[in-house]
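Hi R.,

Here's the input for the coenzyme A complex you asked about:
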Amino acid sequence: MPVRAPHSPADFAAYYQLRYQVLRQPWNQPPGSERADDDEAPTTIHALFATDEGHVAGVGRLHPSGPHQAQVRYMAVDPALQGQGIGQQVLKYLEEAARQQGQTECILHARQQAVPFYERLGYHVVAPSHLLFGTVQHYLMRKDL
Ligand SMILES: CC(C)(COP(=O)(O)OP(=O)(O)OC[C@H]1O[C@@H](n2cnc3c(N)ncnc32)[C@H](O)[C@@H]1OP(=O)(O)O)[C@@H](O)C(=O)NCCC(=O)NCCS
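And here is the predicted structure with coenzyme A in place:
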């Protein structure tokens, strides 16, 4: 599977660049806004999908969010390559990492447009959650691992 952890400084630069390009730049958020305080925590797992040519086309991360619970955040796929199964592979990699840590459920806050993607992969909407940048409605979703 072409999904793996980022290792090199170049990997991490491409990882955060894609996160910024897909999840922050369209809302005119400043560079750096794509980073989270716990990105460098030892318990945070990062995943990237690299093409055969080495292009980083998908990213996502996972962190423990409660007893036996993990949370997925910052899922993003290159807009030119969405709908080709990349997001699915990144998510499955993160879920497997959670299982290996003994987590039994996974939660996330999905953007409204991404809800069908997560439903396709076994998640269910629990409740509406926050409104990001004043416009992007999110929904709390969960799945038994
Ligand atoms: C949401 C996102 C990560 C999904 O990644 P992707 O590579 O485009 O999705 P995949 O191709 O792996 O899709 C997996 C399945 O979900 C389905 N799916 C994906 N997006 C969908 C949508 N918007 N509506 C309905 N089904 C969808 C696909 O058809 C596919 O189903 P299949 O296995 O039957 O073919 C990606 O589109 C993205 O980065 N979107 C913009 C940023 C975003 O919203 N990120 C999530 C923040 S919570």
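One thing worth noting: Residues 3-103 form a domain with the Aminopeptidase fold (CATH 3.40.630.30).

Cheers,
M.
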